[in-house]
Amino acid sequence: MANKPDNNAYWAANLRLVTICLVIWALCSYGLAILLRPLISGIAVGGTDLGFWFAQQGSILVFLVLIFFYAWRMNKLDKEHGVDEE
């Protein structure tokens, strides 16, 4: 079992990972789809502009990629700190 300092390091690494994932998600869903849409509207993707694509599909795809990345990275982090389930 991990001792107290390792628990703090594990929690800090977990929070850092969650923060990074949330920032990426916010930039894609809110930043690219809403705030920066006028800047990227000239780029065509699948018959529509890139801003609309991010608002309708891109943000969802990024979110799905983030889910799998988070699960993969958390499993690796769990093994590093000795709290894995295997």
From TrEMBL:
The keyword NADP does not apply. It comes from the Bacteria. InterPro entries: Na_symporter_ssu. The chain crosses the membrane at residues 17-40, 52-72. Keywords: Membrane, Transmembrane, Transmembrane helix. The keyword Hydrolase does not apply. Residues 8-84 form the Sodium symporter small subunit domain. Signal peptide: none annotated. NCBIfam families: Na_symport_sm. This is Membrane protein.
